[in-house]
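Complex 182.
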Amino acid sequence: MQCPNCGTPLGAPTLSESDPPVFRCSGCQGVWVDSNAYLAWVAARPAEGAPDLTPDDTPVSDTQNLKLCPTCRRFLTRYHILPGARFSVERCAHCNGVWFDADEWATAVRHKLHDQVNRLFTQPWQAQIRAAEAQRSLERLYLERFGAEDYARVRDVRAWLDHHPQRATLLAFLQARDPYTL
Ligand SMILES: [Zn+2]
Ligand SMILES: [Zn+2]
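Predicted structure with zinc ion bound:
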């Protein structure tokens, strides 16, 4: 089996009680997660802790070359796995193997995703990533359109209105052309 990134032969997977069985490339330090071995490891250990989904836009070097699955020789597909992250990992739709560039794996470990790789491609996880990304791009849009000061102000007003018992009346007051005419 060869590294999908640099072609270096991948040796035996790293095996230890606490670390998932992954193949680390001695050439580029990237990590190949073979799905069968990984799922067996996941099944044999206690339930995983909560992942840390704090948005993380730390720059990460992300190889862009098209890669083939080292097992099935099919093209790998790119996926975002963490809100705000600028990198994508690559996955084989046929055997579910996953490729992480070296920094990507380090980021996954930092966010405690390395022991739940199998969850990262499920519909709920991917929906969560898309929702977080939509939120971030809207935030950028508002900030750009309103400016920092007005954006902060309108958010304060919104927070104040959100739980106000007179919310509807206050909104009507704000929107009326002249709130003092009947
Ligand atoms: Zn490599
Ligand atoms: Zn494959």
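The beta strands are 23-24, 31-33, 77-79, 89-91, 98-100.
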